[in-house]
């Protein structure tokens, strides 16, 4: 048998490669998990490429733990929540101060357009699975069923990994004001009640996975690859429907991520207030906030200003 005949035996039509789209290495699902802070049943039947990367959500912030100063007390620390850092990176801009506010989750504004889009993706999966079963395309139905199992496993593990525990000592009804220095000269001022600020900046978002959870998510990843293989045995119509379903669902999730203007974390909401303010240099920002707050210890500890005679401070940056 000649080697030239081999591709024809393995790949009869271009649609036989449709399963590769399931393996596309995109982070839309993981990014969605970070922006929402947890998982939700409405995500269960939203099937798009990158399902096997959901556990990588904490890594999307690229290991950055930005320095942060409390303008009201002068204490300096770091933002430890990876999801919050990712949101700050996305909403901030180089050379600008972005003001954000933390409120209770009850202040969330309804977004009918976003939920309508998710409902459409949810319905597409239901219609596709029902059609496959009615017309006897059981291989295509098995592929969708496998992806749903992968979704369930990852969502359960994410819910188990949510720490939601330690956020420091409570300080009821105390107002806080933070200045956060991110990489690439991006600056964020975050205001709200101190307990609310702690809920989105301190502690851990997701704990490390246990050996059992690692085994489950690894098995789910293998199922994604098996689903891509099994799709070869589906009908041509089934392959096309699965291909379009995953592409449309990916588009919906990516669009939802791009339009996200608030972070939900530990029953708190973090959103941008007002417009960004540009500064010619970081020292101008420091001097303005020093004049507003009436203290400079936080700026000294962040390394934003030089110490004057008799001043001492530990520089974090």
Please describe what this structure looks like.
Keywords: Membrane, Transmembrane, Transmembrane helix. The chain crosses the membrane at residues 138-158, 214-234, 240-258. The protein has 317 residues and is of the alpha+beta class. It has one domain (12-278). Helix content is 44%, strand content 14%. The chain has helices at residues 6-10, 28-36, 82-91, 112-134, 138-161, 194-201, 211-230, 236-258, 282-293, 297-302; strands at residues 67-70, 76-78, 96-104, 175-182, 186-193, 262-265, 268-272, 277-278. Strands 1, 2, 3, 4, 5, 6, 7 and 8 form an eight-stranded mixed β-sheet that branches. It is elongated.
Q: How is this fold's topology laid out?
A:
Elements: H1 6-10, H2 28-36, E1 67-70, E2 76-78, H3 82-91, E3 96-104, H4 112-134, H5 138-161, E4 175-182, E5 186-193, H6 194-201, H7 211-230, H8 236-258, E6 262-265, E7 268-272, E8 277-278, H9 282-293, H10 297-302
Parallel strand pairs: 3-5
Antiparallel strand pairs: 1-2, 1-4, 3-7, 3-8, 4-5, 6-7
| Count of alpha and pi helical runs | 10
Could you tell me the mean pLDDT? 87
Which term fits the overall shape?
A: elongated
Q: Work out the oligomeric state of the chains in this entry.
A: single chain
Which radius of gyration do the C-alpha atoms yield?
A: 24 Å
- Whole-number count of domains: 1
Helix-strand category: alpha+beta
Keywords: Membrane, Transmembrane, Transmembrane helix
């Amino acid at each position: 048998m000649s080697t030239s005949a081999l591709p024809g035996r393995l790949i009869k039509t271009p649609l036989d490669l449709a399963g590769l789209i399931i393996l596309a290495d995109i982070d839309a699902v993981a990014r969605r998990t970070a922006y929402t802070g947890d998982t939700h049943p409405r995500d269960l039947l939203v099937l798009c490429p990158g399902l096997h990367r959901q556990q990588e959500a904490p890594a999307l912030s690229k290991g950055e733990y930005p320095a942060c100063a409390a303008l009201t007390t002068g204490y300096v620390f770091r933002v430890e929540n990876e999801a919050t850092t990712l949101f700050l990176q996305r909403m901030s801009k180089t050379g600008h101060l972005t003001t954000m506010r933390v409120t209770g989750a009850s202040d969330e504004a309804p977004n009918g357009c976003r939920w309508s889009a998710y409902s459409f993706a949810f319905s597409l999966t239901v219609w596709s699975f029902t059609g496959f079963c009615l017309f006897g395309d059981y291989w295509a139905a098995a592929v969708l069923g496998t992806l749903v199992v992968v979704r369930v496993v990852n969502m359960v593990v994410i819910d188990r990994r949510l720490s939601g525990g330690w956020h420091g000592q409570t300080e009821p009804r105390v107002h806080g004001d933070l200045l956060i220095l991110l990489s690439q000269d991006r600056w964020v001022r975050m205001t709200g009640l101190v307990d609310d600020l702690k809920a989105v900046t301190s502690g851990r978002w997701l704990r490390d996975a246990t050996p059992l959870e690692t085994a489950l998510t690894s098995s789910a990843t293998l199922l994604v690859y098996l689903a891509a293989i099994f799709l070869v045995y589906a009908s041509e119509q089934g392959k096309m429907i699965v291909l379009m379903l995953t592409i449309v669902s990916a588009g919906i999730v990516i669009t939802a991520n791009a339009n996200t203007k608030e972070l939900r974390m530990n029953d708190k909401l973090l959103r941008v207030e007002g417009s960004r303010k540009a500064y010619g240099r970081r020292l101008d920002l420091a001097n303005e906030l020093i004049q507003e707050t009436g203290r400079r210890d936080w700026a000294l500890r962040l390394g934003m200003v030089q110490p004057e005679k008799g001043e001492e401070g530990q520089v974090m940056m």
